[in-house]
Design goal:
The radius of gyration is 20 Å and the shape is globular. The chain folds into two domains: 86 residues, Tetrapyrrole methylase, N-terminal domain (Cobalt-precorrin-4 Transmethylase, domain 1), CATH 3.40.1010.10; 124 residues, Methyltransferase, Cobalt-precorrin-4 Transmethylase, Domain 2 (2-Layer Sandwich). The protein is an alpha/beta fold and 242 residues long. The chain is built from seven helices and eleven strands. The protein has a five-stranded mixed β-sheet with strand order 5-6-9-7-8, with helices on both faces. Strands 2-1-3 form a three-stranded parallel β-sheet.
């Protein structure tokens, strides 16, 4: 299930009911902490580390096979760089006869877009810059294709203190296809405490504070900044319809 960007206010009613009724809650430690206030007393909590997704999936399946109602939590949406896929794969590989419901949540792309205005009104691509599970040459191909296709581009996992080269390379690729003045929205901690929202442009993008809790949205050739909001028009003729 997806817990959204982090605030309990952005948790869907269905997802909230899932957490509140669960006998066992399984998730990355940071996400468990975000929903801790609504975990019922006595529920077993299995907290994991980043990189321990397969281990958590199998622990959840084991608990479900034992008769427990289990909530496997993901930040954002469980099907967008989340736990849904690995849980479904593990259940198939292990021939586990369990009922699995995928409960959607508000993903970082739409949460950040809402803070910025309306940058995702047209076709867009979401690309993670993490090369832990995806080879960098494949990420580069996706960046090139999305840039050349004039998609609005959402960048997940842009950089950390020890991993700065991928964003710099992505920036170079984007500049080959986009005007330097292309609007770029940067949202840190979307929907959480300490949220920061900035609209800059492609040329100055790397001057901003960007880390692993940041979502970057790079506009397309039509994206504008209107009254301090980032907007990608859908193509309506507003002037002639007045």
């Amino acid at each position: 299930m997806g817990i959204g960007p982090g605030s309990l206010e952005d948790l869907t009613p269905r997802a909230r009911r899932c957490v509140e009724s669960a006998d066992v809650v399984v998730g990355y430690a940071t996400y468990v902490d975000l929903v801790r206030p609504i975990i019922k007393p006595g529920a077993k909590v299995i907290r994991g580390r980043m990189g321990g997704e397969v281990e958590r999936a199998r622990a959840a399946i084991s608990a479900a096979l034992g008769g427990s109602q289990v909530a496997v939590i993901s930040g954002g949406d469980p099907g967008v760089y989340g736990m849904a896929g690995v849980v479904l794969e593990a259940a198939t590989v292990d021939s586990a006869d369990v009922c699995i419901d995928v409960i959607p949540g508000v993903t970082a792309a739409t949460a950040a877009a809402a803070r910025l205005g309306a940058p995702l009104s047209v076709d867009f691509a979401v690309i993670s810059l993490s090369d832990l599970l995806t080879p960098w040459d494949l990420i580069e191909k996706r960046l090139e294709a999305a840039s050349e296709g004039d998609f609005v581009i959402v960048l997940y996992n842009p950089q950390s203190k020890g991993r700065r080269e991928p964003l710099a390379q992505a920036h170079s690729i984007l500049l080959r296809h986009r005007h330097p003045e292309t609007p770029v929205g940067i949202v840190r901690n979307a929907g959480r405490g300490g949220e920061e929202v900035e609209i800059t442009n492609l040329e100055r993008m790397l001057d901003s504070e960007i880390d692993m809790v940041t979502t970057v949205i790079v506009g397309n050739s039509s994206t504008l900044v209107l009254d301090g909001r980032m907007v990608t028009p859908r193509g309506y003729d507003l002037r002639s319809s007045r």
